[in-house]
Protein 1
Amino acid sequence: MTQLRPLSALIFAVVLLAIWQTVTMQSLVPAVLLPSPASIANRIFTGAGTLLPNAASTSLVAVGGFALALVAGLGLAAAMALSAWLTRLLYPNLLLFQLLPKVALGPLFVVWLGIGVPSRLAFTTVVSVFPVVIGTLAGLRAANPGQIRLCQALRASLWQIFIHIRVPGALPYIFAGARIAATLAFTGAVVGEFISSDSGLGHVIMNAASQSDTALVFASLVVLCILGAALYGLVGLAERFARRRWRSR
Amino acid sequence: MSRLRGAVSGISAVLLMLAAWEILVRALHISTHLLPPPSDVAQALIDHGDLFAQHGIPTALETLAGFILASFIGCAFGVMLFISPLAQAATMPWILAAQIVPKIALAPLFVVWLGVGAPCRMVFAVFIAFFPVLIATVAGLSATDRGALQLSRALGASPVQTMLKIRLPFAVPHLLAGLKTAATLALLGIVIGEFVTAQRGLGYLVMLAGSIDETALMLAAITGLLVVGAALYALVLLAEAVFARWYGAPIIVGDFG
């Protein structure tokens, strides 16, 4: 039974696709509303000329924004971990900000930076930075106080304690934040393209939807899912590598 | 006492931030078009009170409805997946995979399916928000204390009784965590819906203010969204407090074995 479990998920997907294909082939549902899986697969190949450059544009913004969010988030959290009053000043504001759907700030970035790539990069960074800050902050606080006291007694420098105790202890938390940030980065990039853009998969989706080219909408979504999963997978790989390197749990 | 002190320190931190914003904008002569000071934003909120009522109420109601629907649907599906291990094994990997892809991108598809009205935005919000509730329900039901289950079996409780009296109460802390995520996601879904359909609502107002270069109005609309988000979150906190009182707080899981 336990060996059958991963298989059952696969069977479920195949059956679902088969039903979807049959229903759409019998024209029970108009293709404008729900194109068949086969026609979506076909549209990915016929639309590759449109999809590829726009996927590259979306990936650039998402990956760039994610990288910036990592740098900014780690820096901010490290500063907050070092300074208690900075934490007391910033943390309540961060929590308040968490209640706001950050994507609502999209049009503000258009006012500030126009509709180009820099604007969407900045927006994506802001959308995805929060989980990194909160994860890193939680991680840096999670270090075992006994270990730190031992190191202090053994006259370890602040830097040694930071690099040998605090960072390995924080890694799982940092990567938990980074994984959320990776999914938010694509959300930010696509919402940025929804609001105003002349390139990217979000732009393709909006255009295709307005022209009732639903197959192209689905094709773009498939590409977007693959890209999102790829970035998530890369973060997972980086986590395995980092944990081995730092001998973290 | 410490909670009161925490609240005071939190509120003063927010006020300090607003004051710094106000002073910096005025001292550096930053164009109010780029970044209006908080006083301008407050002024816009007061001046356009009727506009905010007109656009804020639909957003708040749609978000609330989407959140409640997502909670019930997520909970119901969670219970069903918990009862049937086969269904859980078949669907759970896909549900978890759906968490890592940007579901927001499906918004235009919902417009194709359901038009540009409120139902479309609400269905989209439910679609976005119900996943964390479902996952939390399954996790919560699976995390029931072994000792409590053994005790209920020994006392001859029926499966339905065990579900209602043991498993569900034990699942509530997990469920509440899922509901907190769902509350923010429901608002996110409504706002994205308002962005792509653009007829009414605070999300529409943000877009409109952006297109007519009224940055103060835009920030006022964003403040409105923050209020809606905070109100919904407070509602979940209230539910948490009520539950804690019913079942005796704090809920100590793992105190039976």
Note: Chain A touches chain B through 58 residues (CB under 8 Å).
Protein 2
Amino acid sequence: MKGATLTALNEARRKREGVIHATWLDSGESWLICRDDALDADLARDVGQAFRLDQSRTLDVGGRPLFLHVFNPPVRLIIVGAVHVAQSLAVLARTTGMDPVIVDPRRAWADARRFPDVRVMEAWPDDALARLKPDHRTAVAVLTHDPRIDDPALIAALDSPAFYIGALGSRRSHARRLERLADEGLDGLAMARIHGPVGLDIGARSAEEIALSIMAEVVAARNGKLQ
Amino acid sequence: MAESGLMEDILETAEAWSGDGHRVALATVTRTWGSSPRPVGSQLVVRQDGSFRGSVSGGCIEAAVVESAREAIGDGRVRTLEFTVSNERAWEVGLTCGGTIQVFVAPLI
């Protein structure tokens, strides 16, 4: 690998651009492929699939092994509510290679000092999500318990292809939440995307344990292990 | 791959080491058959003095990979290594259930 290729690869990763490092394994010659690069038809199909499935693999191209190493930007976790659970959740997201963003319109909560090295947006969730544009590589966890913040966050998240949407709260408060959202015109099929009560059932009690249960559920969803 | 305050970023480390004047090589898992503790794309960066960061398996093939990477730094050539592990010996080399793993080693030039 050439030093200049490594520099360009790191640069693309810092800018959160999806890029593939392609290497002929026989000669070692390698180069970068960006998402919108023009490629011949066969390679374009394999490259598109590698980006989409987020799966690095070795191809056989005319009898030569070509390794496609996929560097997609990290999966994002949008955490609505700069609450105690969010502090642990942001750390766990980082540990598992995800990119956390905290959203909270309340100044006292949205204090960046409580979230070292994490992006904190002091904003209403509908505005924040309109800017963040959740895609199919984004998870949204809604944690405030306050309908004025949680509900618009869920409505905005349900209007996106986010691969995971979870909402903190007991069964009872979740049932009430679904009633409110139904009043807002959401149908049952859409609301079925919300995981509530949020997190895998590991008997979590402390904020840290709740964060762990949420993180476990997000990982399960990312790996296609969630119904 | 992730940028993270908690995990070391292998490619950033490779660039930093190179910038500090070290000669380095990268080892990458390019194929796996059977069960394998690290997915395709996992990387290890190796310095000429034998320091390394990252992993391409659960543990014990690292020593062989580091040695091969130092040779690659020496002669400037790439190589492809393959490790096959029987179920009986799997635990010794850290491949949890046996399997084959292919590792591509390339010097940074």
Note: Chain A touches chain B through 32 residues (CB under 8 Å).
Protein 3
Amino acid sequence: MRTEQLIDLLARHAGPAPRHVVERRLGAAAGLGAVASAVGTVLLLGLNSGLADMGTALAAKLAYITALLLSAAWLADRTARPGAPWRRALWPVATVVLVMALLALTVWLQATDAQRPSLLLGHSWTACPWRVATLSLPALAATLWALRGLAPTRPRTAGFAAGLLAGCGGALGYALHCPELSPLFVLVWYTAGILMPAGLGALLGPWLLRW
Amino acid sequence: MRRTSGSGLPNDFEDQLRPLWLNAQAGDEAAYRQALALMADRLRGYFARRLTGLSHDVEDLVQETLLALHLQRGTYDAKVPVTAWVHGIARHKLVDLWRRRGRSERLFESFDELPDALHPTVHGEAEVRHDLGLLLDTLPPAQRQAIVDTRLEGLTVSDAARRAGLSESAVKVHVHRGLKRLARLIRGQP
């Protein structure tokens, strides 16, 4: 086929470009992933009956995860669009982590020496990151699939962003079970759990994000 | 933002392309046609500078990139220069070609591996339509159907899409991929 014929083929009745493709795909993937994690959490680990009494601690935890999820979604959006500057999309991610670190530091400074170890380790630090990471796997499959249908030109960065987004979805579901109240615990162990699928995404990106 | 990210495309090209492209995105077919033609010219130069001595690959890659531009036009963000977006996709396609070439030199040992039925001399006396049928049979069903519908039966792309239950874009991709594959078969490089 000559190139002029191809242009004719492509342009004929092409109609307007589909709108908000990136947002819709990434949104659907993150939403599905969060729901899968929530269902997995309730079925495998059980809903925490004390959630209603956790008050501001739960609010801070959910706010952190949600803000990180939104900034990860923005990063993923940038990596899905050729030519879009993506480095500056790292700033919101860093800012969210920094704000949470300030909150954790404040609580740490107000605590007595005897309280401090439990602020960091809680009751479940050995399980938390692994659970978050495991619960994120359906979300990771979904976000990688979503990106694969878009146009990531930096597969490693895009894979990382997909994993970060998936990790936040997984963490959101796990919060339904998690009994921990300390912001320092959330900062360290949730973030560790979220970084595992992010790292896995960065490893898988060059293999899976071909188009 | 007026960066062209090292593509060597001057800004007046962006100024010429951008209004056409925005109209094309909104559904203006004539503008889309013009924009694709402008892009094709630029892409030809871009690839030719990087693939000296591989002139056949240049046109293949131009077409491959135009197809990707079409399929991915939903990922264009109006805040980004059109040239930066096109360049991102073009570079991706170029790197992809290099990677595929680097991995498989077997692309070039070709003719012996074709089934006998496809060797042109074997069926020298057969009718052209028979040969064409044999060639078409080597294609994946969706590509064969798209080519038969649009090229042999003369359906429009939208009719073919309706018949196959696919989107128009999908039919266009099948026609393009299928014709490319046929061309390669005829040249004897699978």
Note: Residues 183-208 of chain A form the longest helix (26 residues).
Protein 4
Amino acid sequence: MKYCMKAILLAAAVGWSSSLLLAAGTHPTTGEALTDDQIFTYVTIDEHTSVDPQIVEDVAGAAIVRDLFEGLYNQDADGNLVPGVALSHATNADKTVYTFTLRNNAKWSDGRKVTAGDFEYAWKRLADPETASSYQWFMGVMNIKNADDVMSGDIPVSELGVKALTDTTLEVTLASSMSYFPLTTTHGSTFPSPQWAIKAHGANWVKPEHIVSNGAYVLTKHVPNETLVRERNPMYWNDADTIMEKVVIKIVNDENVALTRYLAGEFDKTGVPTGQFARMQTQYPEEVYSNPTLCTYYYNLNMGEHGPEALKDKRVRQALSYAIDRDIIVENILQAGQFPAYTFTPDATAGFTVPEVAVAVITQAERDTKAAELLSAAGYGKDNPLSIEILYNTSEGHKKIAIAISQMWKQKLGVEASMQNQEWKTFLTTRGEGNYEVARGGWCGDYNEASTFLDLVNTNSGYNDSKFSNEEVDQLLADSKTSDNPQPNYTRIEEIVADEAPLISIYHYTSAMFLKLSVKGWPHENVEGNWYSRNLYKVAE
Amino acid sequence: MLNLIVRRVAIAIPTLLIILVISFLLMHAAPGGPFTSEKPLSPQVLANIEAKYGLDQPIHKQMFNYTVGILTEFDFGPSFKYKDRTVNEIIAQGFPVTMTYGIWSFIIAVFFGVPLGLIAALRQNTRTDYFAVSFSIAASVLPNFVMAPLLILVFTLWLGLLPGGGWNDGSWQNLVLPVIALSTSYTAELTRLTRASLLEVLRSNYIRTARAKGLPELKVILRHALKPAMLPVITYLGPMFVGLITGSFIIDSIFSTGGMGYFFVNSALNRDYSVMLGITLLVGGLVVLFNLIVDLAYGWLDPQIRY
């Protein structure tokens, strides 16, 4: 009896340990030993707004949508386009009609085929005034034919320039020629959505019990403001290549608490609390990363009707720009590997070469001398000091920068600089209405091409808070849309912006994070921060 | 007593209506709106969204429709920020969470705070009293936004005993730290209040009379001192209970409980009008209810009170 019991136990133990060995395995290409638990747990600071591709409007939500759904194209680790549901595309001679060929093995999680019709439905849904998506404007960025008239309800949604010719052929007609159009198709708001599920469940279709999705993962659990779980989707056309079985979000509203819990081993990834990057990098050099991102921190100088008279003088604006020592701000205040900015478009932008604008190529001492000359030429000095107010939204980080800049202006130029902070929505309203002198701004690219930045200085841009207007810039922007090589136009626009200084570019952002050593496959070089869980895997340490 | 209840319920309705109107007006007076963002929406897109949520109508109409929605269907509307959820869903998910850790904190605070205050008063100027007084001062000056991260540091990072946050369907491990962080200052306040109140009662004339007629000390305290000493404590317990069960922004955001306190504060920052109104009305209703309960308890504690 005793022997019998022992034998059973032994057999069970052998069986259990061999199953462990089998489950662990190795990475198919790199050959690294994988851990048993392919579960990736990461922190987001706030609850996502939605997981509906056409409704979601925040970065955390967009990352979930990229896992749950798949659009025409995906991005690789460097941000280049790779096939998603679309295998390839063709375009007509003047680049106004794009025809995408879709794979025929893509499936929804309920087993239905993903068709061109699902994309047509989703795009029309995005443009439909009834959907009332905050991301409708992306249709304008994509330059789809009739998008504006459809959004305003002047013509029916059926007139939108998108049409499924067959189940695997999607034809997109643009309002005008645009060479970088395919880049916009990696954006979540262009992902397909399942008409039958939306019809059946209305707004509740995105709940775990109803959702139908076509990405590498399916949503299995959501507890608002606490956790969200997605698990691999066996129906995904490339499921065989997925290694990470499960992805878990823990929502932790306090970044310091998130770090403590990360250090206690609760998470695989979290952010680096503001102001702690340098210390954390010394302490945990192998787990702390700082990756360049497509975002620019800048100050708007109000040239509009409510703006101060002084800022209508180009020399004053130039002086304010020259007197800011970007190196001090980046190295002594931010300390997380950010890049000093002299152009609005970051260096990290694909296909963009940063032009050598005048303010960038001289030393800070030379800039300071020049700034003082410019301001006195404009008639300001000790007897007649310029007074300027900096407006920013309440935050320790913005405050530190505002203090530094106001001191630089004060010491170098004798400017009487004051500061005012406002709560976020109040700040946005004040800035939007043009009731400010100098106001901070942060701008992140919607796709990886310089126009996503430079369109902001277009006279008609809704984001042009400086109220800058320059005919040459507008023309250059219009021409660049159709050009095969828009770089010369972008160079010229940056030169004009640096010279006219309607805004002062201060630094280009980086995104700082903690990532456990065991997690591999993170696309650190993807400047848009577009990561896909199916490319991640955990190795045994 | 029935008379009192009927009267108070009758007053509660206009009270809640006034809360609704004032909150509604204040909310709309705040600059910006639910759809103000870093990348401003084009006027067309904004118009579509406002039409969808009925924000394009004049404010009195919005208020009317909102009130009708609540009265007829108990519908508090959709959240403007979390687009795939309604206010009813947010409250249904967040309220049980805050109620759970709130009730536990209430029990702990009353269970420890009241007896500690009583003992301190009965043994005034002894070591026990000094301990109780020191504890209540220390605990009330240590705010929970300092205490909560400290607890996580000790119990999660150093000792590895308890999870540093999350709710996990209310498992006890996830409850311990939030309850400690939340209940400490309330325990301290109850200790201080109970002690002061009992000391005052013990010095009153009728206690002197009771002692003079030769009643044993235990009887003096149990029969004559305790009830009147509890009056100020009960007054404090009503609003304290409501404050605890409707959640704390600090506790919710530091311990990521998914509770209602976080949604409440954030809804104001996000200008998520419907969420803010919904929770305001819920809190308002609870305050009215518990004030009534406190008033009823008064009658039992103090025979001089007549309704």
Note: Residues 248 and 261 of chain B are 5 Å apart (CA to CA).
